[in-house]
Amino acid sequence: MAITTIKEEKSILANIQQILDQATEYYEINKSQAKSSFVISISAMVLGFLIIAVGILVFYFKTNPNAQIIAIILISGVVTEFISGAYFWLYNKNIQQLNYFFDKLVKLQDTMLAVTMINRVDEKSQPEILKQVISILITRNEPHRELSPDLVRAIYENKQNKQ
Known about the structure:
Number of strands: 0
Distance between the termini: 25 Å
Number of helices: 4
Helix content: over 70%
Order of helices and strands: HHHH
């Protein structure tokens, strides 16, 4: 007897597919926002540089420069550069979110594959494989731990005792 019926498997896969579709949509939105943040930050950076360059050119090439106007121009350029920096910061945060959701998409796809593949294994092996898959799915979000020699020995002894 299979662990899940075909109807149950389709229901599980449908739920996972719905979550996968939503995560994919969110990933696409985030990718679009990252592109926009990058374009805006580059544009603001170029604009700020141009404003500062105009201020410097006015100062050097105008015969009788007005210090207040030049100061306003230069301050405007510097403020624009700060705005550019804020957009670069936003771009960096978007990229971090993009990577986070890409990892989630990969995990969801792995989960779908695991659920699908369990019923393709011979019935005798299914309970043990199901336990292993559940264990991996539950613990895969935990931080990676190095295996100490004592832990490896304990795992080995535990397996020996079960056999």
